[in-house]
Write a structure and sequence with these properties.
By secondary structure, the protein is α/β, with parallel strands linked by helices. Helices cover about 40% and strands about 15% of the residues. It has 2 domains: about 15-25 and about 95-225, Rossmann fold; about 25-90, DNA polymerase, domain 1.
């Protein structure tokens, strides 16, 4: 297992990020943003370019995808967001699938009695739809996306609310994600963090932001909750 230090703790809960952690949603997001860009008459991006654009909510995604000259124009961003949502409503399950091994990981964690939850910056309706379609059998204690009145990650509000639903202390919960935003969220909530290497960002960003553990495979996460 690739870790920054060994675990000597008894973790009883795990909070997962969604995009880039549980599900590979990149192509559906890229196709939808590119459709919106085309409708606005702007240049499109290759799918791989969106790895560094996603993760901070849909509006931020629009701001980071339009030409630099209009990224602060609220009217442009509003129109882009409307076109994007129209496209994503049709596309969000076209190519999005769990990463290899995730189904088995979640089943095994449930078998071990680990509390599970999801905390995403994706809009709540899409977060819930994806979880329901792909992991309907998993008894998550909560599935949170972007919600009115609740600050987005890396603010710890959502993570701490999920921790409360688990009935656990932050130090008993692992926060798992693929980006620096996720690592900061876990740290802000007082939770140990796991940065996964199969997602959108890579280990360099995760290490720079202070991930406690680095996971190359889902088995690495299981190792952290053995016993």
């Amino acid at each position: 297992m690739m870790t920054l230090k060994k675990s000597g703790k008894n973790y009883k809960g795990i909070i997962f990020d969604l995009d880039g952690t549980l599900i590979d949603t990149l192509e559906d997001l890229a196709d939808s943003v590119n459709e919106a860009l085309e409708r606005m008459g702007y240049p499109v991006w290759p799918a791989g370019a969106y790895r560094l654009k996603v993760g901070r909510g849909f509006r931020n995604l629009m701001e980071n995808s339009v030409p630099e000259a209009v990224k602060e124009d609220d009217g442009v961003i509003d129109r882009m967001l409307g076109f994007f949502v129209e496209a994503y409503d049709r596309r969000y399950m076209d190519k999005s699938r769990p990463y290899e091994g995730i189904d088995g990981l979640l089943d095994e964690l449930v078998n071990r009695g680990i509390f599970l939850a999801v905390n995403s910056n994706k809009r709540t309706d899409y977060t819930e739809k994806l979880i329901d379609r792909l992991f309907h059998r998993i008894p998550f204690v909560g599935v949170f996306g972007e919600r009115a009145g609740v600050p987005k990650k890396p603010d710890p509000a959502g993570a701490l609310e999920l921790c409360g639903r688990m009935g656990l202390k932050p130090e008993e919960v692992l926060y798992v994600g693929d980006s620096g935003t996720d690592v900061k969220t876990g740290r802000n909530a007082g939770m140990d963090t796991v940065g996964v290497g199969w997602g959108f960002r890579g280990f360099a960003e995760l290490e720079e932001n202070g991930a406690v553990y680095l996971a190359e495979t889902v088995q690495d996460i299981l190792e952290l909750v053995k016993g």
